[in-house]
Amino acid sequence: MTKKVIGIAAALVLFAALVLPLNAQPTSLLHQDFESAFPPTGWTTSQTTGSNQWYRNDYTSRSNYTPGANGFCACNDDDWWWGPLLQNNRLTSPAFDASGYTPVWLAFDHDWNNIGSYDEAFVEVYDVNGATNAQVRFVYDEIASTWAWWWQVDDVDVWGTGGGTSVIDTVVNEGFEGPWPPSGWTTTSGGGNDQWRDLNGLGGYWMNYAASGGGNCAENDDYQAWNLGWPMCVENALLSPTFSLGGNIWLEFDRGTYLMAPTREMRLEVWDGSTWQLITSYTLNQLWMHDVWSLSAFGADGVTDAQVRFVYNETSNGQSFFYQIDNVLIYGETSGTEELNLQMVQIIRPRDEEEGGVSFTPACRVLNNLDSATAKMVCRFKDLETMETVYEDVLNSVPLEQGYNVVDGFRDFTPEANKKYTALFVVEHSDDIDPTNNAKDKHWTTFAGMDVTPTVMLSPVPQQYNEFDPEATFEEHAGAELTAATLHCKIEDGEYRAVVYEDSVIGEPFAAEESKNIKFPTVEGLENGAYTITFWATEEHGGNISNPPLVETFEYGGIAEEPVAERFSLDVAGSRISFTLPTATNVNLRVYDVAGNVVTELVSESRGPGYYTINWNTDGVASGIYFVQMITPEFSATRKVLVLH
Fold first, then answer.
1. Confidence (pLDDT) at 517
2. Half-sphere exposure of 319 (CA within 13 A, CB side)
């Protein structure tokens, strides 16, 4: 499970089939709320590289941001511990006896706050079905040694049931891509205007903050309603179609909630046949969340006219932001026949937008109503401009457990940038009683990705004296124009890792393949000692677009007289090139290959007297012998350097 799967609220992870036997009573196999000493009895931490970062959240003075946020939680706080590369940092549960239980379930609350694609979160299981020594573990892993935020886990529960079989059915599956309101869906209002629309209903001011894959969604946009002069919105509800299921009923949906004041309510409720039961009220600003709720826990089992509703309510007049809902699924047990009915439920990848030139694994979600089955899976992509098939893969005899199955065994596909495609997924079985629900298709597009990466630190020098302006070379690597990047510089104390300087250059445009030297405001007041300096770039929403950030170290020696170079010199040590100038002069510094071709020009300008150091980025050159040549009107020198990858 990658971070894209685990980045949800009130997560539900399935070890076995996605249904409990009809009227079965679950047995608790493991419970942990992390309120006692850490690690709790029987829990352990380990890692393959680096130092453990799993502690209770109060150890690093971090608040508990998990849903409910009650008491303490387990926290892997990379913002606090940032240091060497940390790989496979595991928080492992004690062993529990799962023998005699089928299925076995895991539920937990968590908050995943990552940066870019440099860290991952996994949930793993060990020998769950029928095992006497089953375990679960939460794994934080870094792809690159860089600063990130945190992963918090709380209220871990494992339970199981035994025996019995049942058939499950999906009664609501709504992605809000068609006409508004969708068939069977209704809205009600207790006062003011009905503000529930699809994403474009009030002008399309917001993007889809419910589902990370984009597309349309249901939205209560109070921000635009206020701008239109609409009155106070009271008990404005979006209601699902009615449904009836025998038991073990679950609701899943994607959500984005953004409030401006405590006088706004965003609620989730279910009709139990006689009254609306409150499931939860959303009080936090949360984007791209995935919620999973047991409707059986709120009395929906056997109700002939059950419904769920999403309610926006104002207790005083004013302006808020939005309540967004997408990809609503309601499913549970029914007494239906034991005939195979496979359903293609969802296309997971590709998303509505994918990054061109970046490979991904196609994936879909299939519903199997029986205990087990095997099926043929087909995935096909077409270029919408040429209508040619550009990708096709077939998986034969894919095993499907009862319930929802994620199928992601297809080979990877790398799309071109700025293209339009169509995707088709099909599940096939000769005994399927209803082939009409075996396929799903969608149109999807690609975009040129964003990559502005710092490659060379120009200032400070490794042994720095006097105040200085941090400076680095930033390069656009995605081959696409970027209208506004924010460039960052941060300096941390080498001993305590306290941030002593942080500043940004906002709104810097980059042409495709453009390279810029960016200078930050002057650093003042450093004490003598060792420091770590980091340069990186982010896009407009704050996501990291440096691959990877540039992290360097330097020694600061305080105020000193600038040493005066006594002669011209050129020294080369690997990719680090140093030269001195006793007087102001024009300098040309180039790198040549063995054939005499210019590989790169590092300096071509007038510089004052002093000592200079330049880091030559050799990532784009082949291994071999190169020559560094320095030419001034008064001096010339050539040095040989060997590049090895």
1. 93
2. 7
**Token pair for 302:** 């056997």
Q: Which residues of 499-522 are buried (b: 16+ CB within 10 A; e: fewer)?
A: eebeeebeebebeeeeebebebee
In contact, 459 and 471? CB cutoff 8 Å:
yes
Nearest to 287 by CA among 336, 321, 246: 321
**What one-character DSSP code corresponds to residue 537?**
E
Quote the tokens at residue 48: 């393959």
Q: What pLDDT score was predicted for residue 369?
A: 83
Q: Which two tokens stand for residue 561?
A: 């007289």
Handedness of CA 215, 217, 222, 225 (dihedral sign): positive
Mean pLDDT by 10 residues, the chain (645 residues): 24 33 58 91 90 91 78 89 80 86 78 75 73 87 78 86 60 91 93 89 85 84 88 93 88 88 84 93 83 88 92 86 92 72 92 86 91 91 94 94 90 91 95 92 86 92 89 89 92 86 94 92 90 91 82 82 71 86 92 90 90 86 90 90 82
Task: Return the pLDDT at 427.
Answer: 97
Alpha-carbon distance values, 322 to 256, 313, 319, 325 (Å): 8, 11, 10, 10
One-letter amino acid of 382: K
What's the pLDDT score for residue 344? 94
> What percent of the chain is helix, strand and coil (3-state, nearest 5)?
5, 50, 45
Q: How far is Cα 350 from Cα 8, in angstroms, rounded to an integer?
A: 19
SS3 437: helix
Q: Are 77 and 142 in contact (CB under 8 A)?
A: no
**Of 466, 469, 470, nearest in space to 526 by CA:** 466
pLDDT number for residue 159:
78
- List of residues 6+ apart from 546 with CB closer than 8 A: 116, 451, 452, 453, 454, 535, 536, 537
> For residue 490, what are the β-bridge partners?
502, 534
**573 close to 624: Cβ distance less than 8 angstroms:** no
Structure tokens that stand for 602 in this block = 């590092």
Residue type, 365: R
Q: CB neighbours of 579 closer than 8 A, spacing ≥ 6?
A: 568, 569, 570, 571, 587, 589, 612, 630
Q: What are phi and psi of 303, to 5 degrees?
A: -70, 130
